Amino acid sequence: MRSRNYGPDLTPPWKKSTPAPEVAAEPDLVVEEVTTGFCGAVIRCEKTAQGPTVTLEDRFGKHRVFPMEPRGFLLEGRVVTLVRPSAQAPGAPRRTASGSIALPGARARVARAGRIYVEGRHDAELVERVWGDDLRVEGVVVEYLEGVDDLPAVVRSFAPGPDARLGVLVDHLVPGSKESRIAAAVTGEDVLVVGHPYIDVWEAVKPSSVGIAAWPRVPRGQDWKTGVCRALGWPENTGAAWQRILGSVRSYKDLEPELLGRVEELIDFVTGPTG
After folding, report:
1. Is 23 helix (H, G, I), strand (E, B) or coil?
2. What span, in angstroms and rounded, lies between the C-alpha atoms of 194 and 267?
3. 48-56 long-range CB contacts below 8 Å, 24 or more apart?
4. With b meaning 16 or more CB within 10 Å and e meaning fewer, what string describes 37-49?
5. Distances from the Cα of 12 to the Cαs of 9, 19, 189, 198, in angstroms?
6. Residue 235: CB partners within 8 Å, gap ≥ 6?
7. What b/e string do you get for 25-35 counting C-beta neighbours within 10 Å, with b at 16 or more?
8. Residue 275 confidence (pLDDT) above 80
């Protein structure tokens, strides 16, 4: 009788499949299916006779169901194996899009005297998308400037004080820039100006969430948003492009840390104790 011990595995290393990390298919996790390239957020997982499946929703609201096969998905460009998430403990707290614990039955607080200003409408819509629930509970109103050049006049008119702090989020706040000089001129005990390094808040959305490999580089002298649309092969309609980008944001996980930290800092500043 022959032994079934065939000795060591002689398969060449380059033909062996590398195990992929397992990732729980939590709701709102954005992944790409490797075979079809379909990119979307996890809606639900189900157990079927053929094995577990996951339903994804793309930025246009289209749903597709995929088997949860090994090495079947890309997460931020890395091959992963999706697995069913562990059952959530009964009574586990719901979280807001910003990741904070939602307060059941909480009502919007009367608006504070303090404010947060951002540069433009897109910035304001993105902040509302992720931090809207938190801001309403804290009574913080977000307004936009339509350009950082107006900031000194806005600060003078607002007349900030210990009970009416002003927080400002600025695009492309890097050393030596026009934005940095304006920020330095208005920053004070009751005014906090912070910023992210991106040319526009569009770049603060993770490319993987939008379904692109990276944000394109736009030559100087071109309108940046139009240049992005052109480079990505999108219609040169920046309003429609923004709705496409905003629709891909479901939670803080879709944003870059450089923006997340700055917004949280502003909320803490405006709502913190006056001393």
Report:
1. strand
2. 11
3. 52/83, 52/84, 54/25, 54/82, 56/31
4. ebbbbbeebeeee
5. 9, 16, 65, 45
6. 229, 241
7. beeebbbbbee
8. no
Contact 192, 181 (CB under 8 A): no
Phi, psi of 245, rounded to the nearest 5 degrees: -70, -50
pLDDT tens by residue, 202-217: 999 999 999 999 999 9
Helix axes 238-247, 121-138, angle to 10 degrees: 40
Nearest residue to 154 (alpha-carbon basis) of 118, 184, 195, 111: 118
Phi/psi of residue 204, nearest 5 degrees: -75, -10
Q: What is the DSSP string of 55-121?
A: EEE-TTS-EEEEE--TT-EEETTEEEEEEPPPPPPTTPPPB-TTSSBP-TTPPPPPPPS-EEEESSH
pLDDT digits (tens, 9 = 90+) for 44-57: 888 888 889 999 88
**Residue 6 pLDDT grade (very low, low, confident, very high; cuts 50, 70, 90):** very low
> 179: number of CA atoms within 13 Å, CB side?
20
pLDDT of residue 12: 52
User: Is pLDDT of 107 > 80?
Assistant: no
Residue 149 identity? D
The pTM assigned to this predicted structure is: 0.65
Query: Which pair of tokens denotes residue 1?
Result: 């009788």
Tokens of 28: 């709102």
Name the nearest CA neighbour of 41 among 27, 23, 51, 52.
Answer: 27
Contact 114, 167 (CB under 8 A): yes
List the structure tokens of 128: 């509302």
**154-168 average pLDDT score:** 92
User: Tokens for 249?
Assistant: 């944001």
